[in-house]
């Protein structure tokens, strides 16, 4: 069962890498577990489709923000576990600061327009 039938798809550009980095900040996870965690932490509002998740993880691997190693999932399947790297932590910090500024600016426009 795909997650896209349980919530809204993730749309703002750049939001998915930010959410993945944040979720991986606390522990290594495999792809499906990343999608589940985002879905649950968003109170089941956000859904991460596999067709978007795995290409995003590949881009993040190429940029050095995450590393991956093969392991066995809780359902006894061979999966790749992703973990945040030092450059990934630095990028997450930058993105969180930027997100805070943008969100504050948007809220100000909505409040005063």
TrEMBL record:
Residue ranges occupied by any Transcription regulator PadR N-terminal domain in the UniProt entry: 20-93
InterPro entries: Metal_resp_DNA-bind_regulator, Tscrpt_reg_PadR_acidobac-type, Tscrpt_reg_PadR_N, WH-like_DNA-bd_sf, WH_DNA-bd_sf
Cited NCBIfam families: padR_acidobact
Name of the protein in its database record: Transcriptional regulator, PadR family, putative
Species per Swiss-Prot/TrEMBL record: Acidobacterium capsulatum (strain ATCC 51196 / DSM 11244 / BCRC 80197 / JCM 7670 / NBRC 15755 / NCIMB 13165 / 161)
Taxonomic classification: Bacteria, Pseudomonadati, Acidobacteriota, Terriglobia, Terriglobales
């Amino acid at each position: 069962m795909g997650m896209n039938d349980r919530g809204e798809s993730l749309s703002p550009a750049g939001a998915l890498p930010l959410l993945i980095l944040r979720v991986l900040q606390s522990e290594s996870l495999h792809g499906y577990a990343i999608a589940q965690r985002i879905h649950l932490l968003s109170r089941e509002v956000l859904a991460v489709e596999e067709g978007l998740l795995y290409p995003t993880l590949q881009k993040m691997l190429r940029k050095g923000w995450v590393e991956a190693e093969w392991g066995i999932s809780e359902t006894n399947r061979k999966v790749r576990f992703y973990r945040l790297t030092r450059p990934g932590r630095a990028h997450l910090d930058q993105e969180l600061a930027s997100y805070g500024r943008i969100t504050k600016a948007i809220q100000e426009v909505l409040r005063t327009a």
